[in-house]
């Protein structure tokens, strides 16, 4: 009799336990069915001649929803910009540090720290110029910038393409010449106007000289990287401030102050949405200024990996900020771990704003569109025969999943790779 009364008392709890066990079994079956569907999809002949890695993670339950070769290394291309964004968000403030300065009587000393927004074709920041106009003498101090102008493993034949500007300590004009021909030929900076000629060959600029070529019958605007030798830099500054500017290897006369330019989020958003290589590279230069007096992105990358990403299960080979280099190697699991750190520390609305939205913005404007609104917020990465996408997927049930889907060494059109990926994404959206 005692045992029956005991069971009666426990009945409500047993009912709840039954519901919980039933739910667990249901969720388990659901996940198992989902895994079988994805596995079946990537087991088709389409994937036979490429290398594929997938990691899908539920940050709410902390469960791995699906993984396939998630701990293998892949060429990430512009997915590398995710770790660049992480670095900038970790080390930089709400506004971008523009330069160090010290003013004394009629002389202003300036030293660059990598801010890419100064006179940039899009940002058009003029903080340094406006400050300098108020002084009789302006001394630009040579910086301890120890990086090469190009990153390791960058393709040399890209020297004249818009996506491969040189890296520098005090960028100007985005380190490119902007040429357009809407009503008349316009060149910015104007200093190079007499260095632009009718295009007769495929190249946009001589290999190591600031002689530019443009199809003057075209109305399409074009950006061509500048060769940033010391003489060119001096001439660009002198063109802005005639008779005022000198260059020096000396140090500041006393402790300098820091001037700030644009809101940091505006820089991060444009870098991620347009997959802008120049902005990504300069963001690492900027971030390095917060940990050392030497502008060195190798020191910065090592610092981030050792102090902020030392729990990654596969330490990546990380060599640049943009992903231009094929030397970069990351696993899908590493990207999911980095994205999860961002997801748990950055407010959701702000974080998602950095990433292109499927069917709506940036590099995903024409891909992965939702039925009524975006369901994917992610960074793509594309370089010959490689395409990856890593970010956040919103399911119809209200869940947020973190994913990384990496494809290397395929010979089929990238458009076909995207179609197969989209089938999996939509199945995840509708069934998880």
UniProtKB/TrEMBL annotation:
InterPro entries, per the entry = Beta-lactam/transpept-like (IPR012338), Peptidase_S13 (IPR000667)
Q: Which family does it belong to?
A: Belongs to the peptidase S13 family.
* PROSITE patterns noted in UniProt: PROKAR_LIPOPROTEIN
Q: Which GO molecular function terms does the record list?
A: serine-type D-Ala-D-Ala carboxypeptidase activity
BP GO annotations? peptidoglycan metabolic process; proteolysis
Q: What residue intervals traverse the membrane?
A: 7-28
- Source species of the chain: Formosa agariphila (strain DSM 15362 / KCTC 12365 / LMG 23005 / KMM 3901 / M-2Alg 35-1)
Q: Which UniProt keywords apply?
A: Carboxypeptidase, Hydrolase, Membrane, Protease, Transmembrane, Transmembrane helix
Q: What is the protein name for this chain? A: D-alanyl-D-alanine carboxypeptidase
Its Enzyme Commission number?
3.4.16.4
Q: Which Pfam family, any one, appears in the UniProt record?
A: Peptidase_S13
Phylogenetic lineage: Bacteria, Pseudomonadati, Bacteroidota, Flavobacteriia, Flavobacteriales
PANTHER family reported in the protein's UniProt record: D-ALANYL-D-ALANINE CARBOXYPEPTIDASE, PENICILLIN-SENSITIVE CARBOXYPEPTIDASE A
């Amino acid at each position: 009799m005692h045992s029956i009364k005991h069971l009666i008392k426990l009945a409500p709890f047993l009912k709840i336990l039954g519901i919980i066990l039933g739910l667990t079994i249901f969720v388990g079956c659901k996940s198992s069915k989902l895994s079988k569907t994805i596995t079946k999809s990537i087991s088709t002949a389409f994937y036979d001649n490429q290398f594929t890695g997938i990691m899908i993670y539920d940050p709410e339950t902390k469960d791995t929803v699906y993984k396939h070769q998630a701990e293998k290394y892949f060429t990430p291309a512009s997915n590398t910009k995710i770790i660049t964004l992480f670095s900038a968000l970790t080390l930089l403030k709400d506004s971008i540090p523009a330069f160090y300065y010290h003013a004394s009587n009629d002389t202003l000393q300036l030293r660059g720290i990598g801010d890419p927004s100064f006179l940039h074709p899009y940002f058009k920041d003029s903080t340094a110029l406006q400050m300098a106009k108020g002084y009789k003498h302006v001394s630009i101090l040579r910086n301890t910038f120890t990086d090469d102008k190009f990153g390791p493993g960058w393709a040399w034949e890209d020297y004249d393409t818009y996506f491969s500007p040189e890296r520098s300590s005090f960028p100007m004009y985005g380190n490119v010449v902007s040429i357009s021909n809407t009503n008349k030929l316009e060149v910015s900076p104007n200093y190079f106007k007499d260095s632009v000629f009718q295009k007769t060959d495929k190249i946009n600029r001589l290999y190591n000289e600031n002689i530019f070529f443009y199809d003057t019958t075209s109305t399409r605007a074009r950006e061509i990287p500048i060769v940033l030798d010391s003489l060119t830099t001096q001439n660009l500054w002198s063109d802005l401030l005639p008779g005022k500017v000198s260059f020096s290897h000396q140090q500041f006369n006393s402790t300098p102050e820091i001037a700030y330019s644009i809101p940091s989020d505006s820089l991060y958003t444009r870098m991620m949405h347009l997959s802008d290589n120049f902005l990504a590279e300069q963001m690492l230069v900027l971030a390095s200024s917060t940990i050392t007096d030497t502008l060195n992105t190798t020191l910065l990358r090592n610092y981030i990996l050792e102090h902020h990403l030392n729990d990654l299960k596969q330490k990546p080979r990380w060599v640049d900020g943009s992903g231009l280099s094929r030397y970069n190697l990351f696993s899908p699991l590493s990207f999911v771990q980095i994205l999860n750190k961002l997801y748990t520390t950055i407010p959701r609305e702000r974080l998602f704003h950095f990433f292109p939205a499927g069917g709506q913005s940036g590099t995903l404007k024409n891909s992965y569109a939702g039925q009524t609104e975006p369901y994917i917020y992610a960074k793509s990465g594309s370089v010959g025969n490689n395409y990856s996408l890593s970010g956040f997927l919103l399911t119809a049930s209200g869940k947020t999943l973190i994913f990384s889907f990496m494809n290397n060494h395929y010979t089929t059109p990238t458009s076909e790779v995207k179609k197969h990926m989209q089938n999996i994404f939509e199945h995840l959206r509708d069934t998880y």
